[in-house]
Write a structure and sequence with these properties.
It is built from 15 helices and four strands. By secondary structure, it is mostly helical.
Length: about 375
């Protein structure tokens, strides 16, 4: 009880950093929620195409030009190569198609006439290229089947006019799940920083010479002493975790009431307990209060950057992610990213999630064992 009362007295002096980390979470989390709410609708756009036709506008040639006109914006420039190059350079056109002389005749006679092109190399020019290739592929397939040019053109137009209907069967609210993943990824920093800062300061207070000597000569062994301190630290961490979970309900929304939200909460709780063991281990090693800020920057900030709390995981190099495997934050964030992709929740889909959480638990046990070993050695030395 004495240990717990002393713990609360020291904890009362550490309110400022907890408030600061919470403000960071609210600010960045709220900013992300606001930007995510701006829905992005896909609007089909047509590329700007310039057609230079050196053939007679009849038959297949005419049909090709009409197909391109119907699916793009046709741009006219002066009839010289310099003007065309300028139009391409200044992005007035995305794609230039050069239809060669006798294209219609050569195509029907299987001479495979070549259509030259120039492009800006952007996504609009890629759309134009796909359009041209689609027409030519369909035309070549039907050319070997239909001998009549009129029938060939009818069949080409009939095929190209068909549209594929796409039905989205997924019921996942990906926008809200992205919000939840971002929020809990960012809590990696807040939970680590908060636990390390507060717990290290508390443990350093217990290491003051007069307090430390009283503890050593007392009848309490180091395991019981560590256990009581660990429980006290865990209670603080749980209160911090509950506050962040409640904050997620406010910032993320009703997705937190779903099964996905519950898994996010469970994952964050397991990581919070791991953060306590990390902070407890660091507090055992460090007695200097002035070093705590540096420790927070190295451990909390470093692991957050390396493991994808601030930068999306897919943007991190493979070498960094391989190194990040040795950090509990990697498995915490990996789980958050996997949760948002789960459409069906059963044992098979949850197996990777359970394994990731198991890795965090293993890290926690390892940190506790190391802490007890170090505490035992330090008492013997003292």
């Amino acid at each position: 009880m004495i240990i717990f009362k002393t713990f609360l007295k020291v904890l009362n002096k550490c309110k400022a950093p907890i408030i600061m980390y919470t403000v960071f979470l609210i600010f960045f989390g709220g900013f992300n929620m606001k930007t995510s709410d701006n829905s992005i609708n896909f609007v089909a756009s047509k590329p700007d195409i310039l057609i230079v036709n050196q053939d007679k506008e009849e038959g297949i040639t005419k049909n090709l030009i009409e197909y391109i006109e119907n699916n793009s914006n046709i741009i006219d420039v002066e009839d010289n190569e310099e003007a065309r190059n300028d139009a391409l350079f200044y992005r007035d056109v995305n794609y230039i198609i050069y239809i060669p002389e006798n294209f219609n005749k050569d195509f029907l006679e299987n001479k495979n006439p070549k259509i030259d092109i120039k492009s800006t190399g952007d996504y609009q020019s890629s759309l134009a290229e796909m359009m041209l290739e689609r027409y030519l592929k369909v035309a070549k397939i039907y050319k070997d089947v239909y001998s009549s040019e009129t029938e060939l053109i009818e069949k080409i137009n009939d095929t190209l006019s068909k549209e594929v209907k796409i039905t989205i069967t997924s019921k996942l609210d990906t926008n809200k799940l992205d919000k939840a993943a971002f929020f809990y990824n960012f809590t990696n920093y807040c939970i680590l920083a908060g636990c390390i800062y507060v717990i290290c300061l508390i443990l350093s207070s217990f290491k003051r010479e007069n307090i430390n000597k009283r503890t050593i000569i007392s009848s309490m062994n180091y395991k019981e002493y560590n256990r009581k301190l660990l429980i006290s630290n865990s209670l603080f961490a749980i209160v911090l975790w509950v506050f962040y979970v409640l904050l997620s309900f406010v910032l993320v929304g009703d997705i937190m009431f779903t099964s996905h939200g519950i898994i996010y909460i469970i994952n964050s709780f397991i990581f919070t307990m791991c953060a306590v063991t990390i902070a407890f281990l660091l507090g055992t090693l460090i007695a200097n209060k002035n070093a705590v800020n540096g420790i927070v920057n190295v451990i909390a900030l470093g692991s957050s950057f390396l493991c994808g709390a601030f930068v999306p995981v897919e943007m991190l190099p493979d070498t960094i992610l391989k190194v990040a495997h040795i950090l509990p934050s990697y498995w915490f964030i990996k789980t958050n990213e996997e949760i948002k992709t789960l459409e069906i929740l059963d044992f098979e889909t949850l197996k990777p999630i359970i394994m990731n959480m198991g890795m965090i638990v293993i890290f926690s046990i390892l940190f506790v064992i190391i802490t007890n070993i170090l505490s035992s050695r330090k008492r013997k030395i003292s």
